[in-house]
Each structure stands twice: as structure tokens, then as C-alpha cells.
Amino acid sequence: MSNPPPARRPEYDVSKRVALVIGASRGVGRGIAIGLGEAGATVYVVGRTEEEGSSASTLPGTVHSTAAEVTAAGGLGIAVPADASRDEEVAAVIDRIEAEQGRLDILVNAAWGGYERFTNGGLVFGPFWEQPLSLWDSMNRVGVRSDYVASALAVPLMIRSGEGVIVSLSSFAGQVFIPPVAYAVAHTAIDCLARDMAEELRPHRITSVSLYPGLVLTESVTASIEFFADELNRETPLFIGRVVAALADDPERFDKTGRWLVGAELADEYGVVDENGHRPTSNRSRHLPV
């Protein structure tokens, strides 16, 4: 039996770019790392999980398995176990990239916390005063603060590398209340962070945006899929990865700096499709008034 033909390379190409994806053991970060690898990038895969089943959420996925998939997709995946909430560990990652590559072109802030209780004990809804106080720290420390720290540490190397792009994952919770309160506040802050960083990065032509995926079939969503049975407009993590790769390859991407962007809308603009050729539609009308 003959071997199957290699996968067709996407139209977008970031084969000469070095990327850092923080929060890539699983979830959307994992999909973004693989999508960048599919487009040829060298991707430093950062996450805390080194052994299967050892994460706080007990969900599958490790930095090593993600890096292997990046390489299998056509790029070069480099696993770097690190905790995004520890400044010194993030600084060490940046130092390693500078020593090994001498440049950094793409930074993706995808680290997130606070979902552990959903996968360990099922989804728990209710007003903010009935939520554990630790939820605030989980979503604002591993989320808002880690995005700020990673960006601040990475930008000097990105400036020396030339034009680049910083993508911070957010959601429509940055524009309209989506519970819990800590979740909505964190995403509003991430949008503000991306917008305000863009202003100070303008002289260096580094693009800073926040990106809104739709309902992504991550490990955590799949584990609680019964709660999303009525949501038919779903995306895979790889879809968002392809969108990020297309954005990074766009020579006019700086026109988008400082904005919040919807993944499905960028996919329409760039001609990106999800697995099996499917193209999800935007959830804008569902969340925002027309």
C-alpha cells in the first residue's frame, strides 16, 4: 500500500518566523501552536503540564505532545515547560529564545486558569458571591497578569527582530457580560491591555490584538459537551491556529492593531477553513446588538 500524500500546505506561510505560544499544553493554545506549525513556524510551546493527567484539570495534553504535533504538522515544535504565573520562568523562556533563535516574531498569550472546578466537578453556575474567591485570582493572575508580563518581557526582543504580532486570547465577554463576573472582568481587561499596548508599540510596528474564538471544542468543552448541546456553531482549536497563522502572514496586519477581532470573521477575510473544510460563522450577532 502506498503512503498517503503529504498534507497540502496552507496558502499562508510563516516558515521564517519564530513564535512563542504560552498556555499550549491543551485547549486553544495547543491548536494555535499546531496551526502555526502547519504554516511552517518554529514554535516554542510553553505550558505547565509535562506528564499526561497531571494537570490541575486532569485533562489530557502536555507541552511535549503539543510540540510533537507542531513538528508533525510541518513546523518545528520546541517544548518548554514553564508556569506562566511565575515571572522568572517566563523571562527564562524569552532568554532561551534569544539565545537559540536571535529573534521572536509572534507571541500568543493563551494561558488561562479557573476552569479546573468545571472539569473536576461539573459546571457550577451562580452569582459572584457564591463563587470561590480563588476564581478571581485564577482568571486575573493566570490570564490578565500573565499576558502583561509575557508581553513586557518579549517586546524588547520583538523590537530587535522587526515587525511582529502579539495575539491575546479574549472573548465577547470583553464587550458584554458573560458570567461569571471574574470571567467577564478578565476578558474586558485583556481587550484593554491589547488595545493600550498597541499604542506604545505603534512606533515599532508591532501589531497587538485580542482575538475572540467561538465555541471551541477544547478538552474542557468536550468534557462538558452536554451543556453546549444547543450550540451548533463550533470550532476546533486548529481553526483558531490557522486564523492566527494567516494574520501573522498578512502584510497589512498592522491596520488591525489595537482592535478586538473575531476569529470566524478573520477566517472569512483570509479564506481559512476548519478541519474537513468547514468554516464556522461569527457569533457576533448572538452576543452584541445589531
**What's the main sheet like?**
7 strands, parallel
Strand content: 5-15%
Query: Care to count the β-strands?
Result: 9
Mean model confidence by pLDDT: 87
Q: Provide the low-confidence segments as ranges.
A: 1-8
Could you characterize what this model shows?
- This protein has 290 residues and is α/β, with parallel strands linked by helices.
- The protein has one domain: NAD(P)-binding Rossmann-like Domain (Rossmann fold, 3-Layer(aba) Sandwich).
- It has 10 helices and 9 strands.
- It has helices at 27-38, 63-73, 87-101, 116-121, 134-161, 181-201, 219-223, 237-249, 263-270, 284-287; strands at residues 18-22, 42-47, 76-81, 106-109, 165-169, 207-212, 215-216, 234-235, 260-262.
- Helix 6 (181-201) links the parallel strand 5 (165-169) and strand 6 (207-212).
- It is globular.
- Residues 1-8 have low confidence and may be disordered.
